TrEMBL record:
The gene is msrA. Belongs to the MsrA Met sulfoxide reductase family. This is Peptide methionine sulfoxide reductase MsrA. One of its GO terms (molecular function) is L-methionine:thioredoxin-disulfide S-oxidoreductase activity. It comes from Cohaesibacter gelatinilyticus. It comes from the Bacteria. Keywords: Oxidoreductase. Residues 49-201 form the Peptide methionine sulphoxide reductase MsrA domain.
Length: 221
């Protein structure tokens, strides 16, 4: 068991990654909470952001509750295997992270606000794990769609690292890289904790506040 967990926590190479498939796997058509068509492309006036912060069930719920968020969806990114399945990602053989893609209205909630929510709701110092969830698919990651997002992400990481250091906590391991292809997870994963309110959520923050951004409003949805 120990050896298996160690293997899952080591990134494969492009050459050693699983082959995957040409066709996307089936997913949900509508957002279970918002009752809107589930699409990864933002409409005019909206923007998108992608986050990895542990099991994507709990990560998605964190964001769909925020005012100004129009859509959330979970999937796989930052790896090598095209159109992977959940079972393939869980082997550690695809290199993908479990991610949540957020479509939001920047007039209501800023990218900086989303970053605060990201930093404060998981522990970004744990490397290839989040709590009891061990593997490359649980790593902390910010996946960037613009130079502006990159700059904000870097500055917020620096600010939160200073706050962690002042509290005697560890070094951030969050990767900040350009967003790669987003592959939808299977339909049953989409808005999983809305369908299964008592389902598993392994997220937990450090208890440290991120000293950037504005107050974030959380809806009752």
């Amino acid at each position: 068991m120990f050896g298996f967990e160690r293997k899952k926590a080591v990134m494969p190479t492009a050459e050693s990654a699983l082959a995957g498939r040409e066709q996307p796997i089936a997913t949900a058509k509508l957002h279970y909470v918002y009752d809107r068509p589930l699409t990864a492309e933002p409409a005019e006036g909206y923007e998108r952001a992608m986050f990895g912060l542990g099991c994507f069930w709990g990560a998605e719920r964190l964001f769909w509750k925020l005012d100004g968020v129009y859509l959330t969806m979970v999937g796989y990114s930052a790896g090598y295997t095209p159109n992977p399945t959940y079972e393939e990602v869980c082997t550690g053989g695809t290199g993908h992270n479990e991610v949540v893609l957020v479509i939001y209205d920047p007039q209501i909630v800023s990218y900086g606000d989303l970053l605060v929510h990201f930093w404060e709701n998981h522990d970004p110092t744990q490397g290839m794990r989040q709590g009891n969830d061990i593997g490359t698919q649980y790593r902390s990651g910010l996946y960037i769609y613009s130079n502006e997002q990159k700059q904000e992400a870097i500055e917020s990481k620096q600010a939160f690292q200073r706050a962690l250091a002042q509290s005697g906590l560890g070094t951030i391991t969050t990767e900040i890289i350009a967003a790669k292809d987003f592959y939808f997870a299977e339909g049953y994963h989409q808005q999983y904790l809305a369908k299964n309110p008592d389902g598993y959520c392994g997220l937990g923050g450090t208890g440290v506040s991120c000293p950037v951004g504005l107050p974030i409003h959380v809806s009752d949805a």
